[in-house]
Automatic annotation (TrEMBL):
PANTHER family from the UniProt entry: (7AS)-7A-METHYL-1,5-DIOXO-2,3,5,6,7,7A-HEXAHYDRO-1H-INDENE-CARBOXYL-COA HYDROLASE (PTHR11941:SF169), ENOYL-COA HYDRATASE-RELATED (PTHR11941)
Name of protein: Enoyl-CoA hydratase family protein
Domain of life: Bacteria
SUPFAM superfamilies according to UniProt: ClpP/crotonase (SSF52096)
NCBIfam families in the record: PRK07938.1
Record organism: Streptomyces amakusaensis
Keyword hit for Lyase: yes
Family membership: Belongs to the enoyl-CoA hydratase/isomerase family.
InterPro entries assigned: ClpP/crotonase-like_dom_sf, Enoyl-CoA_hydra/iso
């Protein structure tokens, strides 16, 4: 259990999150993931990173049980900071990051893959933000990188999910494969990228980030302020306790 790394091919590092049963990461897990991604980017021998997960789902977001156990706001603040660091680590990694997604990719999972450079998905993968059902907000910044604006809003407001095939049609998923072929397909793309010159691929990553029309760090931090506001005024706890069935504002 935790975050592990492997180097299965020249220039490629695979970083795998394993937090049973559903890969809902605790605060320490988000920071461990951020540290692993940043470490890979700093390694001069690495030219591409694969972000993967063990189990039946890629990521179910934050560990809500950890937040519920905390009588104060420390766990929520820790989760906010951990997610912010992990998402930023993926986006700012000095080399391209390929996300290998199977099963559910929800909440914080969307934050990770939305900041990745490429996505390979199993045909059972679904992507979505059930935040409104969890008494939270956030990662709209990253969902907007995966689907068009109006679809993003509809998915956000309804807490529905989009399939890997749907995201492939929108151009945000590079390839959709059967679950048993996911690891090989992600490694195939990462290996192709890693054949490029190491200095040039790092310059390319910096250049593409530099011309990005969105400031993902600023935008996500802005969203997080509303998540904390919902927690402070009691809305978050009330909505969680009623499974997302709200009352008129």
């Amino acid at each position: 259990m935790g975050v592990s790394t492997a180097n299965p091919a020249d220039g490629v590092r695979v970083i795998t999150a394993d937090y049973p049963p559903v890969n809902a990461l605790p605060v320490r897990g988000w920071h461990a993931l951020a540290d692993a991604v940043r470490s890979a980017g700093r390694d001069p021998g690495i030219r591409c990173v694969v972000l993967a997960a063990a189990g039946r789902g890629f990521n179910a977001g934050v560990d809500l049980k950890e937040i519920r156990r905390d009588p104060g706001q420390g766990a929520l603040l820790g989760a906010n900071r951990g997610c912010f660091e992990a998402f930023a680590a993926v986006y700012e990694c000095e080399v391209p990051v390929v996300a290998a997604v199977q099963g559910f990719c929800l909440g914080g999972g969307v934050g990770l893959v939305g900041n990745a450079d490429a996505i390979v998905a199993a045909d059972d993968a679904v992507f979505g933000l059930p935040e409104l059902d969890r008494g939270a907000l956030g990662a709209g910044t990253h969902l907007a990188r995966l689907v068009p604006q109006h679809l993003m809003r509809a998915l956000y407001y309804t807490s529905r999910t989009a399939t890997a095939a749907e995201l492939h049609r929108h151009g945000s998923v590079w390839r959709v494969v059967p679950p048993g072929e996911l690891a090989d397909a992600a490694l195939e793309l990462a290996t192709e990228i890693a054949r490029k010159d190491g200095t040039l691929i790092r310059l390319a990553k910096a250049a593409l980030n530099g011309i990005d029309p969105a400031d993902v760090r600023r935008d996500y931090r802005y969203e997080q302020g509303f998540t904390f506001e919902a927690a402070l005024d009691g809305t978050a706890a009330r909505v969680r306790d009623t499974f997302g069935k709200g009352t008129p504002a």
